[in-house]
Design brief:
Blueprint (H helix, E strand, L loop, with lengths): L9 E7 L7 H12 L3 E7 L5 H11 L3 E4 L13 E2 L1 H6 L4 E5 L2 E5 L2 H9 L9 E5 L3 H12 L3 E5 L3 H11 L3 E3 L11 E4 L22 E4 L8 H8 L3 E3 L2 H16 L5 H12 L3
Parallel strand pairs: 1-2, 1-3, 4-6, 7-8, 7-10, 8-9, 10-11, 11-12
Antiparallel strand pairs: 3-5, 5-6
Bound molecules: 2'-monophosphoadenosine-5'-diphosphate.
């Protein structure tokens, strides 16, 4: 792993629970090696009732940055010195940076989504449909709106879609079934449908050629939705790119440097392989 850990080696990590499936340490440690940064990244399994104590400990230990994942992204906002406007708008923190012993929360998930989609298409003026209305949807909708796309939110439970649309400025709402009647350039799945199963949130007939389809689900890498989209003639973006780009932005925040994306993507892939 890391060549040599010394008294000067910086410590970063991720707090989540449970912690057995995260690929973040693999991505970040690979980036540190490539960038020549003297740091290590560790996954901390922190139960909800221990979160506040864990953050105090992290501050005392001089940890530089912590990523925040399930189930802490909302509750963590109660334990920080500062939460920036982006994280407030999205309603979740996924990154804490420790500066002068002060805990600053922000959210890089939206940049992860935007930069991942931008691999295939610019966003300004595009018509985007977001499937789902949970935490991932909020970050994606924020990112799309911030980049000048027009957004419709479709969800199994329409009331949740309405709430997300109102709070984040999406123009349309509806049920998942409404996709068949919509014209769109970009489709993003943020529901959990397809996670480790051969299912799709929408039937293949409603997928459009010349569109860009991204799935926030990254296991399997080629979800049923992405397979169907490719068969329909759409361009696809795998969910892993959202994770790679949000991690790259975290690295940029505390190192000030651009992260090596391909190295991180390769580390992400390798971490998903069975031993
Ligand atoms: P996250 O924060 O990861 O986005 P979440 O808040 O639990 O997770 O949201 C999960 C999303 O997947 C929701 O949009 C949910 O739809 P509802 O709001 O109607 O619950 C959607 N979802 C989960 N299972 C689904 C299913 N079987 N069919 C359609 N949508 C589903």
């Amino acid at each position: 792993m890391t060549a040599s850990i010394t008294a000067n080696t910086a410590l970063c990590g991720i707090v989540l629970h449970p912690a057995d499936h995260t690929r973040s340490p693999a991505m970040h440690n690979a980036a540190f090696r490539e960038m020549g940064i003297d740091a290590v990244y560790h996954a901390f399994d922190v139960a909800p009732e221990d979160l506040e104590t864990a953050l105090q400990g992290a501050r005392a230990l001089g940890i530089r940055q912590l990523a925040v994942s399930i189930p802490h992204k909302l509750d963590v906002m109660n334990h920080l010195d500062e939460v920036d406007d982006v994280a407030l708008a999205i309603g979740a923190v996924n990154t804490i940076t420790f500066e002068d012993a002060s805990l600053r929360g922000t959210n890089t998930d939206w940049q992860g989504a935007v930069r991942a989609i931008e691999r295939e298409t610019p966003l300004e003026g595009q018509r985007a449909v977001v499937l789902g209305a949970g935490g991932a949807a909020r970050a994606v909708v924020y990112g799309l709106r911030n980049s000048g796309a027009h957004v419709t939110v479709l969800n199994r439970t329409v009331e949740r879609a309405e709430r997300v649309a109102t709070q984040l400025g999406a123009e349309g709402v509806g049920k998942l079934e409404d996709l068949s009647g919509l014209s769109y350039d970009i489709l993003v799945n943020t529901t959990s449908v397809g996670l480790n199963s051969d299912t799709s949130p929408v039937p293949s007939e409603v997928l459009r050629p010349n569109s860009v389809v991204m799935d926030a689900v990254y296991e399997p890498e080629q979800t049923r939705l992405l397979e169907d989209a490719r068969a329909a003639g759409a361009r696809i973006v795998e969910g892993k790119w959202m994770l790679v780009y949000q991690a790259a932005e975290q690295l940029r925040i505390w190192t000030g440097q651009e992260a090596p994306l391909e190295t991180m993507a390769a580390a992400f892939d390798a971490a998903g392989q069975p031993d």
